[in-house]
Structure formats: structure tokens, C-alpha cells
């Protein structure tokens, strides 16, 4: 409704400008007046045209209003101030349209690929990973709501240094071989312990071992050098594959990966495909990309300077080095190394090959195996994993995307920029323009939250706004522990408020509240804001929180239940009522504001996609809940004596409930029946 009327108005304005002023493709902006009594839309167009037409803005605005005439759905147009055009919707018609609105967005034909989560499979997921996964999953929901087909990918770096570190811990600290590791995993499973939690502690231990804090200070530097050599050799074995070290890594990383998927499923997050770095190496993706990049001159071989013997590419935004007096250019010391002098490929090189595959430009493909079944999801589906050792003949098609969104933290901006630069250099300029680095900042803990988790926090740190987490130091919050604590806190509240419910119902309600609190907390901040997580703030029923929005839905449902009716019934009855009298005056303005905000969901979906910022939708849900709660306190719906007005008020509650549920669903949040 909201978008439809905007589009109608803009199209009429384009026609008027073309006929009256011979202006094509004008810059048209719609703003919101400071007060609803001035109208629903404000257009500053006359100010844009003043210099071009050599007229006062107000004079232009008056001419435009005269030419606009009447437009279906609009009550009229006014000139305000020095030249604003205010547009007023026909409120009664708009309410009828909003009540009847069932947004069905047709498929657009756009195929997007969203890569998110991408946790190193070396230990349990932590709170920082949850921000990545929640942002990515919510953006997937938004793209699908806009009619796009979306493939969800979770990149698995199973040949990186973090996985190598865990295997070093197993083989050097624990002195285990392949069979010992298999036995360990069986033992952990039989005793109810988790491999990802075991690796969490082991990873912290091996990180400390590299620092050689356990040896005599006189020999510390030599020992640190020796242990770092162990790490380097481990990484080489892992990348080469076909050895016991790589076999241990495969065994452990796959088990940890499965645990990651189970953790994310608790937040209703799922995936379609898991591409593994080991298969990118084994299937020689880089070889194909290397040939393309050399042929197009994107890469060049450096013969001097610090990058001598390396294949390098110019960084995005770097300046061309000027020729010297003899006509020679010095080496570009800032060039990005893609292939090291020892022949190994950097992370960025492998990423360039991977993104050529994503766009269907590599000329190679993975082989595929089914890995994880989502049997309780809607729709049910299978998550596939890459392989290089013979996959299924029949499998879904992945890759060949129209647009790519990579949910990767802001510290990876430089590598992401280099991939985009490589695409442009290869001539894939259009594809590069459809490549979005969906960056975000870290998640930390408030000092209070850290102390509640049992960490020792110094008086100095207690005065800080947040404390950073560190997986290497073992300081942080495991994702499952966080979810468990939130559910436990919610359960205590639900048990106290609703003892009449069964244990299963109270557990289900508590889980919905906890997951809603967590997801909303991760989404309400703009992506480039550092989050300081706090249990009490996230679970509060007051303020900008998930439970606050959920509680507004429960209130709306309670009104309908106590009125012994349903949303479908009151919205059907609304068609027989003239609502115009109930939308006038101060009271009417307030109710109309609620209806108008309720009509904006599809507009918010488009805004979130255009800006790659889901926080806009979270803010919309909160504001709609606020306006409904104001309505709830101001209007005693169940005691209204005027039957027609009571139906209108019940319909207002029904529309608010419907649109809040839809908004939360896009945020990945369920709505409990009670709170």
C-alpha cells in the first residue's frame, strides 16, 4: 500500500514535468512531514527545479499542484512553507487497502548468493559468530521477501592456520595419532562431551604453547621459533593433503562443522551449500584463475624489491608509480602478493578463484555430497558439502549467481577490495558492481555480563564500556552457552507468570523469547557499530528489545481473544464500515499513524536491501510496537460502546498484530502466544 501510492504519485509527477517543463528523468525525493496532520508525504522537488527554471520554489510548487489535479487514493495536495508540496492520502480508502493487503511479491528472476557464518571449524562457535550468522540469515530472508532466489553458503576454511593449530595441539600436546583421535571422539561422544568444546580449550592451550611461556626465559625465544616452525610445517601438510596430519584435520573439522550447524539451527539458521577450502585446492580452482589473471595482465611477476619472486597485483585505489629519469619504474611496494616466492597461494588468491566460481566465470565446479538434513524446516531441504573425491551424480546447481553478498567482518575490507579489483581487472566490471562486502563490527561484553559469566574483571576494566573477547585466550562466550543461559532466564520468568502451562509449553515459550531477544539484540544496532552484549538489556520487556515487540503481539492477540473474535473476522467486518470519521482529529491522527506505519513493511524490505542494513527493519518493528502500545493504553477497545468504532479498533489491533508478526518473521523471530 505505502509503496504503491508513492509509485503512483511519482509517475504522475514525471508525466507533469515532461509535459509542462520538458524535463526528463527528474530527481524525485519523497520525505515525511514533521507532523502527520500536514499529510503523509512531502516533496522538495520545487527547490531542485528553482535554479533550472529560474522561478521561486513556491511558484513552481503551486504550478505543479495545479497540474497534478486529482489522483486516486489521494485527498489532495498543498503547498507549504517556501515550496514544499504536501500530499494527503484518502485515509478511509487507505485503511481499507491496508486491511486487505496480502503482500505477494512475484519472483524477480534475480539469483543472489549470500555467504555468511564461515566459522573456522576448529572450536565451538562464539558470540561474535552469532552476529555474522544472524545478520546473514536476516538478509537472506529480506532478499527472498523481495522475490529473489537466494542460495545460502557457509565457507569452510578447513586448511587454515586455526585448524592446523588444533591438530598441532592433538599431535604435539596430547601426543595422539589418527587412531587415537578417532578413539577420543568416540569417548567424548559416549560421555556426553562435545568435540567443539574440547577443541575450544585445546586451541587456547596451543596458542599459549606457541609463546613458550612454559620454558626457561633464557631459552624462550629459541623455543618460540622452534614451535612456530612446527606450526608452519603443519600448515604445509594440511594444504598438501594425503597425509595423517590432514586426515586428523578432516576428521576433527568435519565433526566441529556438524556441531556448528546444530548450534545455528537453534536460531533457525540454515544453509544450502558448504564449500570447503581443501576442495578449492584439490580441484585446482586457483590454476584456472591464475591463467586468466596472467592472460589479462591482472598479475605480474615482481623482479625486485620486497616482493621479488612473487606474483602480485595492484591494490584498489593505489596510484601508478611514476617513471624515473631513465624511464624505469621502481617496484610497487604496496602491491598485493597473490602468489608468494615459494609458490604458495595467499588467502586472497584462493578467494579470487572462489568468487570467479560464484559468478560462474571459472570454468570449473565442485563435486557434491549431501551433508546435513533440515527435516523440521519449512521447506525441508538438504545442505550439501563440496568434495574432490567423487560426489553424487544428481545434485542442485550452485554458483552462477547474479549478485553476491559476503557477510564478513570489517577487518577483512582490504582482502574483499582486492577481490573486487581482480574482477574488474579481468573485465568483469558488471559482476564487480554486484559484489557487496556486507561488513560488520565485533561483539564484545559489558563488564557486568563478563562478571555474570564468571570472568574476573579488574576495577579498571569494570569502568570500560565493553571488554573484547578472544578465542586464542579462551575469553569469550560460547554460542550454545549463551543461548542456554538466555533460555534459562526466560524460563524462570515464564514459570512464574504461567504455571498453568505444561512444561513443554513453558519451555517452548521461553525458547522463543530467548532466541527473539538474542536475534533482535544483534540486529538493532547498525552493522558498523560495536556491540557490547548484556543479558539483562537483551531480555528486558521494556525498551528497544525483542521481548518488547513480542509482548505487543501478545497484547494484540489478547484483545481479540477477549473480544471472542479473530483477525480474519474483524477485518472482514471492516469492509462494511466507513472508517473516515474515526481517522479525524487528534485521536484519529494517532490511530492513522499506526495504520500508516503498519503499511510500510515492503518499503522497509526494499530500504534494507538497498542499504544492506537490516537494522532499519528492527527499528520499524520497535516503532510499530511502540505505537500499538500507545494505542492499547489510550483506547479501551473492549469497553467501546459504539459497535462500528469497536470493530474499527479491533481491526487496528489485528493489523498491528499481523504486521508485527510479519516483521519479526523477517528478523527470524517467532511470536509466542503468552509472555
What's the structural blueprint in terms of helices and strands?
Blueprint: H1 2-21, E1 41-43, H2 45-53, H3 57-68, E2 74-80, E3 84-89, H4 91-100, E4 111-115, H5 127-145, E5 149-153, H6 161-173, H7 178-190, H8 195-210, H9 220-240, H10 244-265, E6 273-274, H11 277-282, H12 285-295, E7 300-301, E8 311-313, E9 336-339, H13 347-358, E10 367-374, E11 381-387, E12 403-407, H14 413-425, H15 429-433, E13 435-438, E14 443-445, H16 447-452, H17 459-462, H18 479-497, H19 503-524, E15 531-533, H20 535-539, H21 546-562, H22 567-574, H23 585-598, H24 601-611, H25 615-634, H26 643-666
Parallel strand pairs: 4-5, 4-12, 6-11, 12-13, 14-15
Antiparallel strand pairs: 1-3, 2-3, 7-8, 8-9, 10-11
Helix pairs in contact: 2-3, 4-23, 5-24, 6-8, 6-9, 6-10, 7-10, 12-13, 13-14, 18-19, 21-25, 21-26, 22-26, 23-25, 23-26, 24-25, 25-26
Description of the molecule:
With 675 residues, this protein is an alpha/beta fold. Among the domains are: 88 residues, Arginyl tRNA synthetase N-terminal domain (Gyrase A, domain 2, 2-Layer Sandwich), CATH 3.30.1360; 116 residues, no CATH class; 129 residues, Orthogonal Bundle (Isoleucyl-tRNA Synthetase, Domain 1). Helix content is 52%, strand content 10%. The protein is built from 26 helices and 15 strands. The strands form five sheets. The chain has a four-stranded parallel beta sheet with strand order 5-4-12-13, sandwiched between helices. Strands 1-3-2 form a three-stranded antiparallel beta sheet. A three-stranded mixed beta sheet has the order 6-11-10, with no helix packed on it. Strand 2 and strand 3 form a beta hairpin. 41% of the residues are buried.
Amino acid at each position: 500500500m505505502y509503496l504503491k501510492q508513492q509509485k503512483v504519485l511519482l509517475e504522475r509527477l514525471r508525466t507533469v514535468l515532461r509535459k509542462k517543463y520538458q524535463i526528463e528523468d527528474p530527481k524525485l525525493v519523497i520525505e515525511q512531514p514533521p507532523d502527520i496532520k500536514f499529510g503523509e508525504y512531502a516533496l522538495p522537488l520545487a527547490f531542485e527545479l528553482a535554479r533550472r527554471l529560474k522561478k521561486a520554489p513556491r511558484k513552481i510548487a503551486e504550478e505543479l499542484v495545479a497540474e497534478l489535479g486529482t489522483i486516486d487514493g489521494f485527498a489532495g495536495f498543498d503547498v507549504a512553507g517556501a515550496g514544499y508540496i504536501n500530499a494527503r492520502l484518502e485515509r478511509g480508502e487507505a485503511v481499507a487497502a491496508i486491511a486487505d493487503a496480502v503482500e505477494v511479491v512475484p519472483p524477480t528472476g534475480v539469483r543472489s548468493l549470500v555467504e555468511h557464518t564461515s566459522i573456522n571449524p576448529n572450536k565451538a562457535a562464539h558470540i561474535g559468530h552469532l552476529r555474522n550468522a544472524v545478520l546473514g540469515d536476516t538478509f537472506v530472508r529480506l532478499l527472498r521477501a523481495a522475490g529473489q532466489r537466494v542460495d545460502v553458503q557457509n565457507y569452510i576454511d578447513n586448511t587454515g592456520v586455526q585448524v592446523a593449530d588444533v591438530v598441532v595441539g592433538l599431535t604435539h600436546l596430547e601426543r595422539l595419532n589418527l587412531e587415537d583421535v578417532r578413539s577420543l571422539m568416540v569417548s567424548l561422544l559416549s560421555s556426553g562431551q562435545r568435540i567443539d568444546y574440547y577443541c575450544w580449550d585445546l586451541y587456547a592451550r596451543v596458542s599459549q604453547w606457541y609463546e613458550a611461556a612454559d620454558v626457561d626465559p633464557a631459552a624462550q625465544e629459541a623455543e618460540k621459533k622452534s614451535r612456530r616452525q612446527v606450526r608452519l610445517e603443519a600448515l604445509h601438510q594440511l594444504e598438501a593433503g594425503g597425509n595423517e596430519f590432514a586426515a586428523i584435520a578432516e576428521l576433527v573439522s568435519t565433526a566441529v562443522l556438524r556441531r556448528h550447524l546444530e548450534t545455528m539451527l537453534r536460531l533457525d539458521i540454515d544453509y544450502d551449500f558448504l564449500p570447503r577450502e581443501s576442495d578449492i585446492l584439490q580441484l585446482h580452482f586457483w590454476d584456472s584463475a591464475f591463467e586468466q589473471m596472467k592472460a589479462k595482465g591482472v598479475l605480474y611477476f615482481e623482479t625486485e624489491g620486497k616482493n621479488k619472486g612473487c606474483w602480485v597485483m595492484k591494490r584498489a585505489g593505489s596510484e601508478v608509480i611514476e617513471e624515473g629519469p631513465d624511464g624505469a619504474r621502481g617496484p610497487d611496494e604496496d602491491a598485493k602478493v597473490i602468489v608468494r616466492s615459494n609458490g604458495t597461494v595467499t588467502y586472497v588468491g584462493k578467494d579470487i578463484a572462489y568468487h570467479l566460481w560464484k559468478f560462474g566465470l571459472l570454468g570449473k565446479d565442485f563435486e557434491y555430497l549431501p551433508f546435513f538434513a533440515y527435516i523440521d524446516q519449512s521447506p525441508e531441504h538438504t545442505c550439501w558439502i563440496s568434495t574432490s573425491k567423487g560426489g553424487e551424480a544428481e545434485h542442485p546447481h550452485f554458483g552462477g549467481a547474479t549478485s553476491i553478498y559476503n557477510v564478513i567482518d570489517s577487518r577483512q575490507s582490504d582482502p574483499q577490495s582486492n577481490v573486487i579489483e581482480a574482477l574488474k581487472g579481468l573485465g568483469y566490471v558488471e559482476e564487480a558492481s554486484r559484489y557487496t562486502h556486507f561488513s560488520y563490527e565485533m561483539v564484545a561484553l559489558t563488564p557486568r555480563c563478563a562478571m555474570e559469566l564468571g570472568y574476573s574483571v579488574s576495577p579498571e576494566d569494570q569502568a570500560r564500556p565493553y571488554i573484547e573477547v578472544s578465542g586464542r585466550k579462551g575469553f569469550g562466550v560460547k554460542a550454545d552457552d549463551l543461548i542456554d543461559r538466555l533460555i534459562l532466564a526466560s524460563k524462570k520468568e515464564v514459570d512464574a507468570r504461567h504455571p498453568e502451562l505444561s512444561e513443554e509449553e513453558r519451555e517452548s515459550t521461553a525458547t522463543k523469547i530467548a532466541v527473539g531477544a538474542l536475534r533482535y539484540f544483534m540486529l538493532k544496532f547498525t552493522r558498523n557499530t560495536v556491540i557490547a552484549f548484556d543479558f539483562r538489556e537483551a531480555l528486558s520487556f521494556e525498551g528497544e528489545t525483542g521481548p518488547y515487540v513480542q509482548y505487543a503481539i501478545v497484547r494484540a492477540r489478547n484483545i481479540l481473544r477477549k473480544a471472542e473474535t479473530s483477525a480474519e473476522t474483524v477485518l472482514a467486518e471492516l469492509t462494511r464500515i466507513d472508517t473516515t470519521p474515526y481517522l479525524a482529529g487528534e485521536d484519529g491522527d494517532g490511530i492513522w499513524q499506526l495504520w500508516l506505519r503498519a503499511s510500510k513493511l515492503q518499503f522497509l524490505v526494499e530500504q534494507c536491501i538497498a542499504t544492506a542494513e537490516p537494522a532499519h527493519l528492527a527499528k520499524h518493528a520497535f516503532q510499530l510496537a511502540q505505537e500499538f502500545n500507545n494505542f492499547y493504553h489510550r483506547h479501551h477497545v473492549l469497553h467501546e460502546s459504539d459497535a462500528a468504532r469497536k470493530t474499527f479498533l479491533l481491526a487496528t489491533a489485528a493489523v498491528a498484530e499481523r504486521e508485527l508478526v510479519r516483521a519479526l518473521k523477517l528478523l527470524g523471530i517467532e511470536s509466542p502466544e503468552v509472555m
